[in-house]
Amino acid sequence: MAVRAIDDAIKHWGLLKKAITQLVLNFQMAGRQAKNTWVGHLLPCIRKTWPQFRVLVAPTLEMRGLPPPLPDVKIGRQYTSAAWVANWRRRQLKLMKRAPCSSQQDFILYKIIFKLGHLETNADNEGHPSFKPIPEAIFPTPTIGIETFRCMLRVFSGMGDFARVNAHRPRWQSLPGVRDFKHGNRICLFCWVHAKHRIVDSEWHALFACPTCSGPRRRFRLALSDACRRADIVETPLAVFDEQQWRIPFSCDLVRLVILCRKDYRLVDELARFCVEALSCRQRAFKKLTVRDLFPD
Ligand SMILES: [Zn+2]
Question: What's the gap in Å between 206 CA and the centre of ligand 1?
């Protein structure tokens, strides 16, 4: 936004140029208080993406330290794209510094990034493999509703309502006792109530195995078989379902499903719908759960 304002001031002159010039002068004359000025806030932010960036006012207002201009791309848009790439790269490198445990939010994201980045691993000078972040987004630009897409992103970034992370915290009031449940406060309550199975309530359990989500799962598999037939894919996401239907699903199954779906926008759409439907099934099932279901005695 600020880069675009300065660019507009340089191109169109007028009052905007006078205002920006004054703001830069304020920064230059503020001494120790410089960091509290508009430009003082702006520079550290932009320099995270363009380290050499600065604004000059003499002999005329101009920006320095910019990358070579791209044809038909305004500088504001160029900055937004570059900032996104730089942030995404920083996020991945930070994530890779320490592997999160399975009760942490970033667990699935870490596994996805590790798997994708790992494929591009190069050895450093000492022969140790070094992590190379992926330059592109995990998923292509969505063609489904933005809310549906966001819901899927929340699920894969560990922000969904799953007890592996939140230990059923949203239900501590409505289901007193679940917080200190003697069978574990991270288990899937549906599988416990219906079959007395103690399974960690996770995204992969919900999407692959939990009976609560069997309806959405059936629809998703049907949609996958249609989409895969059209797309002529060698390894289909359906194989992931087929492989783990006789065993307990693992987080790596979900990671594999995401990686197989991510390149085809139709599969991504179906995956996003699946997440939304699975979550709403869980919400409905949670509403029906009573204290007596959990503590029959
Ligand atoms: Zn379950």
Answer: 6
268 and 153 co-located in one domain: yes
Question: pTM higher than 0.85, yes or no?
Answer: no
Whole-number Å distance, alpha carbon 199 to ligand 1 midpoint, is 7
Percent of the chain whose predicted confidence (pLDDT) is above 70: 93
Residue 105's domain comprises 75-130
C-alpha 29 to ligand 1 mean position (Å): 63
Structure tokens at 160: 């969904």
Ligand 1 geometric centre to CA of 202 (Å): 9
**pLDDT tens per residue across span 277-294:** 999 999 999 998 888 877
Domain end among 38, 64, 90? 64
Tell me, yes or no, whether 191 and 282 share the same domain: yes
- Whether 135 maps to a domain, the answer reads no
274 CA to centre of ligand 1 in angstroms:
16
**Cα separations (Å) of 144 from 92, 157, 270, 294?**
26, 19, 9, 38
DSSP 8-state symbol, 200: B
What average pLDDT score do residues 112-136 get? Answer: 71
Expressed in angstroms and rounded, the spacing between residue 295 Cα and the centre of ligand 1 is 17
Amino acid, single-letter form, for residue 282 = R
- Ligand 1 centre to CA of 182 (Å) is 17
260 and 224 fall within a common domain: yes
Within this chain, do residues 283 and 157 fall inside the same structural domain, yes or no? yes
Of residues 252 and 184, more confidence is placed in 252
Element (H, E) at 86: helix 75-97
